[in-house]
Amino acid sequence: MLRTVRQEDLQAFFEHQCDPVATELAAFPSRGREAFDAHWAKILDDPGFWVRTIEVEDGVAGYVCAFPREGRWEIAYWLDRALWDRGIAARAVAEFLTLFPERPVFATVAEHNRPSLRVLEKSGFRFVERYESEGDVAELLMTLERAD
């Protein structure tokens, strides 16, 4: 399900992040083409950034990634809206977490994004705190601790 990102995956990633329904649910604005390309060039050039393409039925379904943020590791993911409600995001995150060794790992999710919250909870993430982000969006900080 997960594989190394290829340059040709970026077109699908760009299209996915332009979906207004997905951006509203994620509470994350889409980027214009130039900003998107610059952002992904930085990601792909950074050896400390973990990112994998989610592949379903030989097509690019989205991505899962981990990156350092504010002194801790955080994961994020994006899935083509046409593939929502099939358990794909939950399986991709679970698989990614078997590859990514760092714990604890955190995730931030918009409070109104219940489907994404369920994805995280299925992988064992637990609530840490609620806060207001830019634009007065209620965000939930979640964490997955090291298994004992």
Mean pLDDT: 96
Termini Cα gap? 27 Å
Q: What percentage of residues falls in helices of 4 or more residues?
A: 25-40%
The ordered string of helix (H) and strand (E) elements is EHHHEEEHEHEE
Shape: globular
Number of strands: 7
CATH homologous superfamily annotation: Gcn5-related N-acetyltransferase (GNAT)
CATH names the topology as Aminopeptidase
Radius of gyration, in angstroms, nearest whole number: 15 Å
Question: What is the CATH level 1 assignment?
Answer: Alpha Beta
CATH architecture: 3-Layer(aba) Sandwich
Query: What is the total domain count?
Result: 1
**Strand portion:** 25-35%
List low-pLDDT spans.
none
Compute the number of helices. Answer: 5
Domain N-acetyltransferase: 1-147
GO molecular function: acyltransferase activity, transferring groups other than amino-acyl groups
Protein name: GNAT family N-acetyltransferase
Keywords: Transferase
